[in-house]
Design goal:
The protein is α/β, with parallel strands linked by helices. It contains 11 helices and 10 strands. The strands form 2 sheets. An 8-stranded parallel sheet has the order 9-8-7-6-5-4-3-10. It has a two-stranded antiparallel sheet with strand order 1-2. α4 (134-146) packs across α5 (160-173) and α8 packs antiparallel against α11 (311-320). The longest helix is centred in the last third of the chain and has 17 residues, at 251-267. The protein is globular, with a radius of gyration of 19 Å.
Length: 331
């Protein structure tokens, strides 16, 4: 397992991070524990979760991923870097979501209870909240750091200009500074290379991308004419599945995957392994978040941890997917 320095902090994290978005819905607790065990046995020391997980969960299900992760961490909390996120809807009240001081201060306390820990190593704003002034958000996060409830703070799903503005306010107000960004990034979604990644490198931010397999599409196991009954593209995860269908389930993407599959076959490697290795090969990337609903799904992706992508092979993957670097995402 490769390890990298986490931004300008003193942390060293594994080049692969385990995401827990399936725990508590697609993945029951017993299987979740096996997924965590397998990742840990491979050398993963970084776990990513969120208060609104599992993905596609109802209001009665949100928080289960943190609870399962917390039970698994019992007796070994000091061996892992734990990150969680807040800001998503956690209740029916208008203030049960977003990045207001009220919600974030409530949300961190609730996450710590579910995780059964006194602190998280990384606390991230899950998505940008345009309704709340940035000053209020960054001041609330500074209070969370100063209270000892989080060691570091970061963002997820932020546009580059909003992240730049937030960092500017933190520097001006002399507040705890964001150390990381968690964007969506894969061979079929490369827009962040245009602005977010250059910003992260200039500001020395750790980048911990999620969705390296495009919801499993880059495993090569789906066909466009099928209707998945399980997984990220299925009805079992409700609107979450519909969102992933809108993102990726298009003829252009499937045509690209066929070409990628041919390159992987020529290289003698599973497509999933190459897809993760390609993300890891970008010098702006610190740690790639892997998701899995079953233990077996980690076999190929964890294998990327000690695989070096040959420059000529990376160039072929770059060239084939160049069109996904241009333009703006529709969702």
């Amino acid at each position: 397992m490769q390890f990298k320095k986490f931004s300008r902090t003193g942390l060293m994290v594994s080049g692969l991070c385990l995401g827990t978005g399936t725990f508590g819905k697609q993945t029951d607790e017993a299987e979740s524990f096996q997924v965590l065990d397998k990742a840990a046995d491979t050398g993963v020391n970084f776990i990513d979760t969120a208060d609104i997980y599992p993905g596609g969960g109802t209001m009665s299900e949100v928080g289960r991923s943190e609870e399962i992760t917390g039970r698994w961490l019992k007796g070994k909390r000091d061996r892992f870097i734990v990150g969680t996120k807040g800001g998503g809807p956690m209740g029916a009240s208008p203030w049960d979501r977003g990045s207001s001081r009220k919600h974030l201060l409530d949300a961190i306390d609730a996450s710590l209870r579910r995780l059964n820990t006194d602190y998280v190593d990384l606390y991230q704003v899950h998505m940008d909240d345009a309704e709340t002034p940035l000053d209020e958000t960054v001041e609330a996060l500074d209070a969370i750091v100063r209270s000892g409830k989080a060691r570091y703070i970061g963002v997820s799903n932020f546009l580059a200009y909003r992240l730049a503005r937030a960092i500017g306010r933190q520097d001006t107000l002399r507040l705890a500074r964001f150390v990381s960004a968690q964007p969506r990034y894969n061979l079929l979604f490369r827009e962040i290379e245009r602005e977010l990644l250059p910003l992260a490198q200039e500001e020395n931010l750790a980048v911990i991308p999620f969705n390296p397999l495009a919801g499993g599409l880059l495993s090569g196991r789906y066909q466009q004419d099928e209707k998945p009954e399980t997984g990220r593209f299925s009805a079992e995860v409700g609107q979450f599945g519909a969102m992933y269908m809108a993102r990726y389930w298009h003829q252009r993407e499937f045509e690209t995957i066929e070409k990628l599959r041919a390159i992987a076959q020529e290289a003698g490697e599973p497509l999933a392994k190459l897809a993760v290795a390609w993300v890891m090969a970008n010098p702006a990337i610190t740690s790639v978040i892997l998701g899995a609903s079953r233990t077996g799904q980690l076999t190929d992706t964890l294998a990327a941890s000690d695989y070096t992508l040959a420059p000529e092979l990376k160039a072929r993957l770059d060239d084939l997917t160049l069109e996904y670097r241009r333009g703006d995402a529709t969702r």
